[in-house]
Design a protein that fits this description.
Elements (H helix, E strand, L loop, with lengths): L2 E5 L4 H12 L4 E5 L10 H4 L9 E5 L2 E4 L1 H11 L10 H17 L6 H7 L3 H30 L12 H15 L8 H11 L4 H4 L11
The chain binds glutathione.
Glutathione (GSH) binds next to helix 1, helix 3 and helix 5.
């Protein structure tokens, strides 16, 4: 069977994984799970990922892997080329640091399950998500500049080729814009975003290109 990605068009963690699959030329099918209808919290989806989050990748009939970091590292090990991690251990550690800054330091704070606890009002939710996206982008900008100083100025998040770091940065910048953050000051982050979005498989991974995206 081909791999099956359970995803939602605007889920940033799903975006990371479908982009990695496309970049590596791995065939997969997509099944939409609607976050706005809370389908991710249904028993049917918790059987794929006990915490009730997207994405989940069905790797064999009835066998699922969740958590985008785990999925992308598994894809890297099973399909090493084109690589999404540098061979050099230090550069690889920096790629992982960028991934985790987004995965652990920014994205969880904007999750629906969190926003629903923060406020019952749309404005209250947006203000919270704005604050943590802004805080995260400031940190990301500083980190990418620090990495440039070590490895030489790069056009992507880390270095001069697409890495897993870009797959985490680009969806996060999209989210930051959604929550009203002025991203213009983060010029190093925006350079990485532009470079990554110009790579061959970036376009098809974008939210608005997903089958469950609303028609514009
Ligand atoms: N660390 C997880 C994050 C997964 C996650 O938080 N997914 C979000 C969508 S981007 C979700 O399913 N949220 C559901 C909710 O908040 O109820 C990963 O990288 O896969």
């Amino acid at each position: 069977m081909s791999l099956v990605l359970y995803q939602y068009w605007r889920s940033s963690a799903s975006w990371r994984v479908r982009w990695a699959l496309a970049h590596k030329g791995i065939a997969f099918d997509k099944v939409a799970v609607n976050l706005l209808k809370s389908e991710q919290r249904a028993d049917e989806h918790r059987a794929r990922n006990p915490i009730g989050h997207l994405p989940a990748l069905e790797v064999a009939p009835g066998r699922y892997l969740a958590e985008s970091v785990a999925i992308i590292e598994w894809l890297e090990e099973t399909h090493p080329t084109p690589a999404l991690y540098p061979a050099d251990p230090w550069a690889k550690a920096r790629v992982r640091q960028v991934c985790e800054l987004v995965n652990a330091g920014i994205q969880p704070l904007q999750n629906l399950v969190v926003l629903d606890k923060v406020s019952s009002e749309a404005e209250g939710k947006k203000a919270w998500a704005h604050e943590f996206n802004l805080r995260g982008l400031k940190a990301l900008e500083a980190l990418l500049r620090e990495i440039d100083a070590e490895l030489g100025e790069g056009s992507f998040a880390v270095g001069s080729t697409l890495t897993a770091a870009d797959l985490f940065v680009v969806p996060q910048v999209y989210s930051a814009r959604r929550f009203g953050v002025d991203v213009a000051p983060f010029t190093r982050v925006l350079r990485a975003e532009a470079s990554a979005l110009a790579t061959p498989h970036a376009d098809g991974a974008r939210p608005e290109k997903q089958p469950d995206a609303p028609a514009t």
